[in-house]
Design goal:
Blueprint (H helix, E strand, L loop, with lengths): L10 H41 L2 E5 L2 E23 L5 E6 L6 E2 L4 E6 L1 H33 L8 H33 L2 E3 L4 E6 L6 E2 L10 E16 L11 E6 L2 E13 L9 E9 L10 E7 L7 E4 L3 E4 L2 E7 L5 E5 L1 E5 L3 E6 L7 E2 L13 E4 L10 E8 L3
Parallel strand pairs: 1-21, 2-22
Antiparallel strand pairs: 1-20, 2-9, 2-13, 2-14, 3-5, 3-8, 4-7, 5-6, 7-9, 9-12, 10-11, 10-13, 11-12, 14-19, 15-16, 16-17, 18-19
Length: 402
């Protein structure tokens, strides 16, 4: 039985197969290298991308605050007159006790002044004497003048008589003025009310020694007009620009817990007290029924107004270090730019800034540690007012205890 034999493979075919194998192996190696290079590039890009910090940003919040400032105040009568005596003596009588309603010109007390009475009697007697002396001098002068033509009286004597008459007339005028002065003082023996009001103090009694014209010590009486009251409030310096003359306020007092009273800012001291850093402001309110008492404590709620909308940022946006107080902003190129700011008011979670930023800034809400000027950042969002800082209205209550 014949045997089959495989024909021998030619060398040419073997060489071709080898070349093909080498090419395939090379392709596999090149493909692997390229894939690895691509992976490394993607990994580097991912790593670089992860190295860029992500931040949340928001524009400044521009709020027109209609705030209410709570301050302690003190009620005072609109008109208050301590009454002192102009003459010395003893209190003869009084007719108005504390709480008494009095009218302008009403006699509320009378002083007994015997010394003044005697001075007035003496002044009147002196005036009569001076008037008589002046009349005698005038009559004598007139008689002497009739003798001048007959040369019985010299011109020198006429001049002397005329001068004497003038002196005596001057003495009469002086005596008359003294009488009128003492009569005016005698009129002050009656103590009268200077205006319609109520007697809020009486510090004297019948028989008490009265020292007139000193203006020291306790007043005999104090008369107050309580139909209208003044309220004095010490306003912290930072709030003064927001309180204008004519601004409205609400007054409440402990003795009327369920009632409020409207008041109006009437005047400002236009100065800051060095010790307290406050400005004294005066409010006025009507008190027709006398419900509010002068001298009492009052709580004053004052409305604050702003012409412009101040810019607010979250408290977490502030950075304080050796460079000062700053906030981090993100520029159009998504790079960090630090800005130095000044605080106007600390409102707790929000900070009102006086300067340093604009309404178009993008503020980093919570800047991470290690940020520097020019660092690239990735913005991941944030909250706040619409871009541009469109003003919104908000009510705020601040309480300052004194």
């Amino acid at each position: 039985m014949p045997t089959e034999q495989t024909p021998p493979v030619s060398r040419r075919k073997l060489g071709l197969v080898g070349v093909i194998g080498l090419c395939a192996a090379g392709a596999i190696v090149v493909t692997g290298i390229m894939a690895r290079a691509k992976t490394e590039t993607e990994l580097k890009a991912w790593t670089d991308d992860q190295a860029i910090p992500s931040v949340a940003v928001a524009p400044p919040d521009a709020r027109v605050l209609r705030a209410t400032l709570d301050l302690p105040g003190r009620l005072e009568a609109y008109y208050r007159a301590p009454i002192f005596a102009r003459v010395s003596g003893y209190l003869k009588s009084w007719s108005a006790d504390i709480g008494a309603q009095v009218k302008s010109g009403q006699v509320i007390a009378e002083i007994e002044a015997p010394d003044l009475d005697q001075q007035l009697l003496q002044a009147r007697a002196d005036l009569v004497s001076q008037q008589s002396s002046a009349k005698l001098s005038e009559a004598t002068l007139n008689r002497r003048k009739t003798l001048v033509a007959s040369n019985f009286v010299s011109a020198q004597e006429i001049d002397e008589r005329t001068a004497d008459l003038n002196n005596k007339r001057a003495a009469v005028n002086s005596g008359q003025a003294n009488v009128e002065r003492l009569e005016a003082l005698a009129g002050y023996k009656k103590i009268t009310a200077p205006f319609d009001g109520v007697v809020t103090q009486r510090n004297t009694d019948v028989g008490a020694l009265i020292s007139g014209g000193t203006g020291t010590g306790a007043a005999m009486f104090v008369v107050s007009d309580i139909k209208k009251l003044r309220v004095y409030v010490d306003v912290p310096q930072s709030y003064v620009p927001a309180i204008r003359l004519g601004a409205k306020a609400i007054i409440s007092v402990p003795d009327h817990p369920n009632k409020t009273f409207p008041a109006t800012v009437e005047a400002s001291s236009q100065s800051v007290d060095v010790a307290s850093g406050t400005t004294r402001m005066q409010l006025v309110l009507d008190n027709p029924n006398g419900e509010l008492l002068p001298g009492g404590y009052a709580n004053v709620k004052m409305s604050l107004a702003r012409d412009s909308a101040p810019l607010h940022v979250p408290a977490s946006a502030l950075i304080f270090n050796k460079s000062g107080l700053r906030v981090a902003t993100v520029g159009p190129d998504d790079k960090i730019l630090f800005k130095t700011v000044t605080i106007a008011r600390d409102l707790g979670r929000d900070i009102e800034l006086a300067s340093g930023i604009t309404a178009d800034d993008r503020i980093v809400i919570a800047p991470p540690d290690g940020l520097n000027d020019g660092d690239k950042v990735r913005i991941t969002g944030g909250s706040g007012a619409p871009k541009g800082g469109k003003p919104t209205a908000e009510t705020e209550k601040k309480e300052v205890k004194g």
